[in-house]
Amino acid sequence: MSVLRASKAAVLAAALAAGPADAASELVREELRATTADGVGIRVREVQPRAGAAGEPIILVHGARVPGIASFDLDVPGGSLAADLAERLGRAVFVLDARGYGGSDRPAAMDRPATESRPLARGHEVVRDIDAVARIAAERTGSDTVALVGWATGGMWSAWYAALWPERVGRLVVLNALYGGADRHPTLGPGSPVADPDHPDRLSPKVGGYTLNTEAALFPSWDRTIPAEDKASWRDPAVAEAYARTALASDAASETREPPAFRAPAGATEDSFLQAGGRRLFDAGSITAPVLLVRSEHDFWSRPEDMAAFVHDAVRSQGVRSVTLPGATHYAHLDRPERGRDALIAEIVAFLGPETDQ
User: Which of 26, 123, 178, 277 could form a disulfide with 189 if both were Cys (CB 3.0 to 4.6 A apart)?
Assistant: First the structure.
């Protein structure tokens, strides 16, 4: 594993992209790069207080389609979970792009038609990416352990990592993630449109190595689960615009397509398909860290059975807290403060903070 500092120009560009919020919040951002045990380059952004950070570093792990910066560090008020946690906890926060996403190395197959490869960047590979970032965080902060915060498929990946390397994870937050708690899912898994008609418990072979995602494709699931006719009453339009803009900008080839579209590996789809069908890809019983499980009331992805199964299995954890956010959507960290965002951040800060009694 190696760490490469970005050039001064790249750091300046990142600072400019972050915008004036940096000056107000007294945060600094630095672009880093790591190399995994299997030789994959991983893009990492560090966000920390200008006065310096102390305590266990935090790693934010994105989900299946949208990479790290678009998920966790948007350049608009209310759009940066990374900034909120760095500021409120005084910690260094690391935002990664998993392999095949954003600024990280992409498999060569992603430069060919998607139909020519099987789903890329499976979970057993992404845990190597998390490990590379965990080692950076330990090196830069002097901490022996990290705190992981994973959203959706990122929650599954984070818990998977915590099960494989329990000694390296001090605390774990899992937000709206699957865990094989039931064998039926409303939109995924056996019997869903992406199932193989000949083998319903398998993903269709027609699902290729990656997907192309337009701006329009980012919002239907979000819109459907907002329990209000006026979506702007739940989601700030400025956050939505920044989310789409930053997601598209994560792929340099987006503008070569009509309409513009960014690539995302489909390995997360296959992993999630299996979890949705009741197959557990890792054992929560190997996790020793305290765990915060959070599920939004209006989440379309995770199920109450996933939380229950995780709690049942996590017998070696130092403690599991399960929370349901009333009225919140799958995108709680990007919704308006009063629509679940403040409640989510309060739960995470209380759990990760030094006063937490585990």
Answer: 277
Q: Are 155 and 148 in contact (CB under 8 A)?
A: no
Q: Report how far Cα 241 is from the mean position of its chain's Cα atoms.
A: 19
The one-letter amino acid code at 354 reads P
Put simply, whether the predicted model's pTM sits higher than 0.70 gets the answer yes
CB-CB neighbours of 299 under 10 Å: 23
pLDDT tens, residue order, the chain (358 aa): 333 333 323 333 343 344 434 444 599 999 999 999 999 999 999 999 999 999 999 999 999 999 999 999 999 999 999 999 999 999 999 999 999 999 999 999 999 999 999 999 999 999 999 999 999 999 999 999 999 999 999 999 999 999 999 999 999 999 999 999 999 998 998 889 999 999 999 999 999 999 999 999 999 999 999 999 999 999 999 999 999 999 999 999 999 999 999 999 999 999 999 999 999 999 999 999 999 999 999 999 999 999 999 999 999 999 999 999 999 999 999 999 999 999 999 999 999 997 433 3
Cα(319)–Cα(321) distance, rounded to whole angstroms?
A: 7
The torsion angles phi and psi of 171, rounded to 5 degrees, stand at: -150, 155
Token pair belonging to 120 = 């890329």
Q: What gap in Å lies between CA 152 and CA 158, rounded to an integer?
A: 10
